[in-house]
Specification:
Blueprint (H helix, E strand, L loop, with lengths): L1 E5 L3 H12 L3 E5 L16 E2 L12 H10 L5 E3 L6 H11 L4 H28 L11 E5 L2 H5 L2 H9 L5 E4 H7 L12 E5 L3 E2 L2 H14 L3 E3 L4 E7 L2 E7 L2 E3 L3 E4 L5 H5 L9 E11 L10 E4 L4 E5 L3 E10 L11 H11 L10 E9 L6 E4 L5 E5 L9 H12 L19
Parallel strand pairs: 1-2, 1-13, 2-9, 4-17, 5-15, 13-20
Antiparallel strand pairs: 3-8, 5-7, 6-7, 10-11, 11-12, 14-17, 14-18, 15-16, 16-17, 19-20
Bound molecules: flavin-adenine dinucleotide.
Length: about 425
């Protein structure tokens, strides 16, 4: 079958891989001159299979208001870009802030995340991929006892979902992350996910694209997709800057831009761009650096170790499609890396970046079939698109192949929003 994969981020390239492996003739269409040039470019690098939480949770509306008053606020709303679409998406998200919705969404996210771990394990056995991969876990670090006590309900749902985790003492945090001994007064303990990993999503995607090419996948780079054409419940053409393209099946992997192309063909994708920032520091002193990911719970900033770099990521800014780099947003990342790992990286030569997380109101991705028979989705992965990339791609490929997927997929499809 001839398949067009729309978008060349980690979701699109991974989808192309699994489809090519199952014998399809695959073309990836990407507007940039490289794959992984947008949100998959410099994310925080966490493969956080266990540290997987929906944003919409009971208590979040109040917490968000408190955060917005803080100097190093993890959540910001830019009033200049607030519009009807923003308001509607936020209302949908607020509707997910109940105990019941949170538990359901968390289960769905954990299921696809855990599956992704297995799929990435399989893939790294199959291909010699170079992406600074480490498998040393994530520590969610707590600065005060009150916050650490408040994780009890989360522990229950982790136990229910069978996610390996351990509540660790101050000394155990240092045992796993020895550099934290230099700042031992800053934290009191942590929650550790030993199965989590880290890796550079951009390096991975570029490397996997090379394997895709070797497997016969065509890449149409520098090609803007203008619109989709639908007729009698099927996609009949894709209009691009390189002409009109047709195929037997089409997979939308356009990240935050997915609704712009899908909504006009008849159903609404509730995906909104949530801007985030990262800093990448050259490694200065190994002994002062993290070994894996340390997530500073108080500031919602992740500090992740690559081979010779440190990546610091965080901030959720509601700013529509504005991709301007706001210098003052460096502050939370600079503060946390300096506070927890002083002297580890070279802040003077750090690279500052921002990207748009393709967020759904319930935080779970949108994967699988749609009301249009030959149109499939692999998008809306929000904060965890790197973590979920391999499971999501294998899942959508199985659905296209009419194969029963390894995990329950119904709750991840767009139909949950079309009732
Ligand atoms: C600051 C930050 C930190 C993050 N940290 C983590 C993390 O630690 N772990 C994790 O798992 N996830 C993380 N994420 C989320 C993760 O990066 C994303 O979920 C993931 O990269 C989304 O991949 P994607 O392929 O769906 O989208 P993208 O990478 O954005 O790919 C979509 C592609 O579609 C192309 N495209 C769009 N419109 C068109 C068009 N009209 N024509 C042609 N091409 C088009 C774009 O150019 C782009 O290449 C983070 C995100 C941010 C912003």
């Amino acid at each position: 079958m001839k398949v067009l994969v729309l978008g060349g981020g980690v979701a699109g390239v991974s989808t192309a891989w699994y489809l090519a492996k199952s014998g399809h003739e695959v073309t990836v269409i990407e507007r940039s001159n490289s794959v992984a040039d947008e949100t998959s470019f410099a994310n925080a690098g966490m493969l956080s299979y266990g540290y997987t939480n929906p944003w919409a949770a009971p208590g979040v509306p109040l917490q968000a208001m408190k955060w917005m008053m803080q100097d190093l606020a993890p959540i910001l709303v830019s009033s200049s870009s607030f519009n009807v679409r923003t308001a509607s998406w936020m209302m949908q998200m607020l509707g997910q802030c109940t105990e019941e919705a949170y538990n359901l969404n968390k289960r769905r996210m954990l299921s696809i995340s855990e599956y992704s771990r297995t799929c990435l394990d399989d893939l790294t056995k199959e291909l010699p991929l170079d992406f600074d991969h480490r498998t040393k876990g994530t520590i969610e670090l707590f600065r005060d006892q009150e916050k650490m006590n408040s994780i009890e309900p989360d522990l229950a749902s982790l136990r229910d979902c069978g996610v390996e985790h351990e509540v660790i003492s101050h000394a155990e945090c240092i045992q796993h992350e020895p550099a934290l001994a230099n700042v031992s007064e800053k934290f009191i303990g942590g929650l550790r996910f030993p199965q989590d990993g880290t890796g550079d999503c951009k390096k991975f995607t570029i490397d996997l694209a090379e394997h895709c090419r070797a497997a016969g996948v065509q890449f149409m780079l520098d090609t803007e997709i203008h619109s989709l054409e639908a007729s009698s419940g099927k996609i009949t053409a894709v209009y691009t800057s390189a002409g009109v393209l047709t195929a037997d099946a089409y997979v939308v992997c356009l990240g935050s831009y997915s609704p712009l192309l899908v909504n006009p063909v008849g159903f609404k994708l509730p995906i909104y761009p949530i801007k985030g920032y990262s800093l990448t520091l050259p490694l200065l002193d190994e002994s002062k650096a993290p070994q894996s990911t340390v997530m500073d719970e108080a500031f919602k900033v992740a500090v992740t170790r690559f081979d010779d770099r440190i990546r610091v990521g965080g901030t959720a800014e509601i700013a529509h499609f504005d991709l301007s780099l706001k210098e003052k947003r460096r502050k939370p990342a600079e503060f946390v890396v300096n506070d927890l790992f002083p002297g580890a990286g070279d802040l003077n030569n750090a690279t500052f970046w921002c990207g748009l997380r393709p967020m759904t109101p319930d935080s779970a991705p949108i994967i699988g079939k749609t009301p249009i028979s030959n149109l499939y989705m692999n998008t809306g992965h929000g904060t965890l698109g790197w973590t979920m990339s391999q499971g999501s791609a294998r899942l959508v490929a199985d659905l296209i192949n009419n194969k029963t997927p390894d995990i329950e997929s119904e709750g991840l499809s767009v139909f949950r929003y079309l009732k």
